[in-house]
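Example record

The entry below shows one chain as it appears in the dataset: sequence first, then structure tokens.
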Amino acid sequence: MKKKFPISDIPHFPISTVESHAGKLIYGIVQNKKVIAMQGRFHFYEGYSLQQIIFPVRVLKMLGIKYLLVSNASGAINLDFKKGELMLIHDHINLLPSNPLIGENDERFGTRFPDMSTPYDKVLNEKIKSVAQKNVETDNYPSLREGVYSAVPGSNLETRAEYRYLKKIGADAVGMSPFLR
């Protein structure tokens, strides 16, 4: 069973203005697990606040979603990375001019001051690495890299000086997708 809904039909959800983002919410069952997928998301550079951008994630949490897997297209800063390789984020650098936690705190979504020393679930990341390794060995998928993602506001790509800066502060990849809390 698979159902698709236009995101524009959901009250208070932002509408993506990015051409390649279809703006659909897809519900289905994969290997006996209920799955909700958002086909497209929203960006700070589209003019939305970070609170508006995280609203759909909070709705998904209220619907009972326990795990959130986010993908995006990013630019590699680490010269060892090849075009098309996947990168598992194990840490990030937030260079956005705001934070989605600013404003009134709702304890249903976590503490006001989350510990960001380990922002990504190690057990879940190990599972992802294990699945990726099996697929690389059997299906010639690109290898899975690990690295530090840097979020920037966009909507322009970085200057040469900005790439050098991002590399010096430890970023392996850069993109315009915010972190979702």
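Notes for this example: The mean pLDDT is 88. The chain has three helices and seven strands.
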